[in-house]
Amino acid sequence: MEMQQIESITKEVFECFFTNHSDSELSELKRDISDQWDSMLHVNLISALEGEFDVVIDTAAAINLNTMQDCVTLISALTEE
Amino acid sequence: MKFLEAKKTIDKLNDNADIQTVLLATSFQSDAIDIYLQAQFALRNFKLVLEHIPFGNFQQFINDNAKTDRRNLAIIYPWDVLPQLDWRLGYHDFKEDLESLLELAKKNCVKISSRVDFGVYLDVPGKPIFQHDSDNQLIQLYIKRQLRLMGINLLENIDFDLANYLQTGQPFNGRTISLLANELSKTYFSGIVELKKILVTDLDNTIWSGIIGEDGPNGIQYDAEGAGYPHYIYQSLLKTYKGKGILLAAVSKNDQDLAELPFLQNKMLLNKRDFVAIIGNYEAKSAQIASLATKLNLGLESFVFVDDNPLEIAEVQKALPEVTSLLFSADKDSYVSLLRVLNSLFPAEAFSEEDANRTELYQAKLNSDLAVQCAGSELGDFLNSLEMQLSIRPVTDSLADRAFQLLNKSNQFNLNGLRITEDAKHKILNDNLVVFTGSLSDKFGRHGEVITAVVDRDCITYLAMSCRVLNRTVEHAFISAIMQHLDINSIKMNYLETERNTPMQKFMKNHSSADKTLELSSLQNDSNFNYQNFNIIIPEND
């Protein structure tokens, strides 16, 4: 899958969880400083990404996902395998 | 179905779609499945409003018999039947043998089936608890068989993600959720799961041979001879059903006194006390059954109706398609077939000794509304059986981190949603406010520090409890013990309503006055709370 496509789909998934966020707000979003991006939302977000891209995200890797770009990078690596 | 496809399917749903409100009962955090399940319902043109039980509340759920209007849907894992199989609990010395665990599994399966309208069982490996693997396999096979007998749908090829379960409490990964939602919705819409609970029988030419209004009490036959024999066998079968806890009712197009007369003579196997109701009138039988369902607060799906008259069977089938209607015929083949079907609808394994008293309970229910009291006492019994121990201690600087972490992480049972910053933390500790924490353990294991309060003389400024222990009245025990420790009868609460602290809002609504003061007596008078359910350890005052 092309990187651009992964970015676009990932952004769409993020928009389902972070409604009313602009593109730039989504790009700058960081889990460690976001009130909304709590542990429960994180579990649901990872499930959504796994379901959308048909991948399994290792729990150790999931813990380190802090931004939307982190997710894109990880999914890109997983879909290449 | 992929995640975004599910989202788009929901968005496309017509605004006028019928609404289905469903409670999804799981022992894990199940929000991730919502969107897939809502999409499955949307495909069938239904808008699904999904409610969840609080995380970690599955055992409370199956022990609470309170009836509600919505349907209960459940995803069941082996450890929901036997908590001993739960990987997350680690190993403890349960001192229980295989036989007692099988018995417990059976009881819990019955409880689950009585609470769950539609459910799927995921046959994934539980934690091995016995030395011999054959015993471990036996217990899982037993659970599987029990639940299947009770109409729970079995899913054997669903991936179990142990690492994810240990890390997040969610026993599967995102690839599996769509499949699970698909199976769950299929189970829901096929409506195959309702355990039959009540047999409603006709009287003339069914319970006995003959017509009471014409033949009189001495002309009807029900003994183990001649024309009465098939009816004698039928009565003996119903008698055994009653003994297992299946409810019996009779509906007859007769005068009430005539319908009851043969039962009052005590000559038949069945007598009046074996029935929750004997109804004689000339209303349509479907109307009589519907009225009974309302009075007993039972779903029509749990009813089986037996009558010798094909017209009555057709009338009930048409008016109440949810009821399973069966023709009684003394013709040999039809008769054998009827008994076989009845035994498959009321499997012996589905009922426990505890169910045997159901008839008396429901007879009482018909006479007075005892439902609420009954539910409360069963939940109380369950909480009592947990053997909860709550260790409360004031913490100092070095030990306060976990306490502050709990305040900053918890949203649901959180007094005000205020987060503790580093500055606030130093202020709390420097101003000599008291930070109390409570650690909970029960017969299944240790839950660790689950509740924290910061107390400023006569005011609780911060309070939070882990959602894992909601509905155990831990908050009642904790605050009561602190108030007794401080020798005060009332305490102010620095309460603020937030978007997410609904359980706290409920607690405050029940126990605090308009000025947000909480009285010790209010906690102690809460019918759901029993101080004796807890072994509370708290240091004496200095």
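qc> The mean pLDDT of chain A is 91.
qc> done
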